[in-house]
Amino acid sequence: MTENFLKGCKWAPDGLCLVTNSADNVLRVYNLPPELHSPDCEGLPEMTPVLRMAEGDTVYDYCWYPLMSSMEPETCFIASSSRDNPIHIWDAFYGDLRATFRPYNHLDELSAAHSLCFSPDGAQLFCGFDRMVRVFQTCRPALCEKRPSDGLSCSSLSLQKQGQSGLISCIAFSPVQDLYACGSYSRTVGLYSRAEGLPIAVLQGHQGGLTHLRFSPDGTLLYSGGRKDPEILCWDLVSGQGAVLHGRAVSTNQRMYFDLELSGQYLLSGDTEGVVSVWDTTLPPSKEGPVLQPILQFQAQKDCVNGISLHPLMPLLACSSGQRQLPEPCESGDESDEAGDLMTLRNVQGENSLTLLWAGPTAQQTGGERTG
C-alpha cells in the first residue's frame, strides 16, 4: 500500500483551480474541470494535476494569495512552509519559485513557520511560530516584524497571565474587523489587533491543540477545531456566548479542516471515519445546553476526510481523504514461528483521493461526484 496520502485541499479565490497537500511533500494544482460549465455534463474525467511544487520536508501549512485572479498572472501565487525550510512563494501559473521569506530565531538560525495566512488585502503574510507571530511585507520579503503571543510585551497584567504559549498552529483574519485570531497547541485561541498585534482576549475550551480557525462572513462568529477533538467551538464575539458543534469523529492528531458556505449558515467538516457533517449554525442550541447536532451526515469516503473546501462561486465541494495506515497484528499460522504475531497491512483499507461533490439543486446537477 502506498505511503502517500492527501492532507488537505483549498480552492483558489477565483475558483478556477484547486491546490492539494500530500504526504510526499508536494503541492499539486488542479484546474476546475471545464465540463462543469456544460449543462449536458453527465460525468467528469479523472483529474490530473497541471502543476507540482515539491517542498524539501513535511509541509506545515500553505495558503493562496487572497486577491488571486487567473486573469492577472502576477497575482497567482501560493505561500507554503515546511520543516527546516524557509517560507516559499510559488508561482501558481508556472510552478516556479518566486520568492523566499527567511525567518530567523534568536540564535540567528533559520526557523520554520507552522502556520501561514495573508492579510485580507494581501499586503502582509502572517506566520506562526513558538509563542510568536512574524509579519512579512508581501512585496518586501526582507522586512519582518516580530509579535510575541505570550503576553510578555503587553502592559495589561491580566493579559500577560493569559498569554498564548506553545506553537501558533493556525491564523485567521476577521473579514470586517481589524483583528485576527491565532490558535495554539496550548489549546487556546487568541484575538489580536491587526495594526499592532496587541492582545484583545484569550479564549479557552478545547480538548486538544488548535488546528483550524474560520470567521463567519459577518465577522461576529469565530469557529475553531483541535487535535483529537470531536467538537468545533463557535465563539460569539458580540454577545460573548458560545456553542458547540458536536457529531464528528476525530481520533488522530491530523489537521482536520472545515469550511463555511458563502452566507455563513452552513458549516461542513469531515472526520476520521470518512463522514462529512453539515451543521445549520442559525438553529437554536438544544435543550441540553449550547450544543448543535448535524442536520446532515453522509459517507463521503472510505477513509479519513481531512480536507473540506467549498467553491467560492459554485455549489461545489472538494474533499481530500487519506491518513497514514499503521499495520495490524495477525496470526502467523506457524506454531514454530518464534516471531509470534506478525504485522500486516492486509486488513487495512485506505482511500487516498480528491473528490468533487455537486451541492446544488438536484434538477440542475451537472456532474455528481468525481474522484481525481
From TrEMBL:
InterPro entries attached to this UniProt entry: SWT21/TCAB1_mRNA_Telomere, WD40/YVTN_repeat-like_dom_sf, WD40_repeat_dom_sf, WD40_rpt
One annotated GO molecular function: RNA binding
Intervals holding WD repeats: 203-245
Domain of life assignment: Eukaryota
PROSITE patterns: WD_REPEATS_2 (PS50082)
Main location (coarse class): nucleus
Compartmental location: Nucleus, Cajal body
Transmembrane segments: none
Assigned keywords, A-Z: WD repeat
GO CC annotation: Cajal body
Coiled-coil segments on the chain, per record: none
GO biological process: Cajal body organization
The keyword Lipid biosynthesis appears for this protein: no
Pfam family, one: WD40
Family to which this protein belongs: Belongs to the TCAB1 family.
Oligomeric and partner information: Component of the telomerase holoenzyme complex composed of one molecule of TERT, one molecule of WRAP53/TCAB1, two molecules of H/ACA ribonucleoprotein complex subunits DKC1, NOP10, NHP2 and GAR1, and a telomerase RNA template component (TERC). The telomerase holoenzyme complex is associated with TEP1, SMG6/EST1A and POT1. Interacts with the chaperonin-containing T-complex (TRiC) complex; which mediates the folding of WRAP53/TCAB1. Interacts with COIL. Interacts with SMN1. Interacts with RNF8. Interacts with histone H2AX.
Protein name from the UniProt record: Telomerase Cajal body protein 1
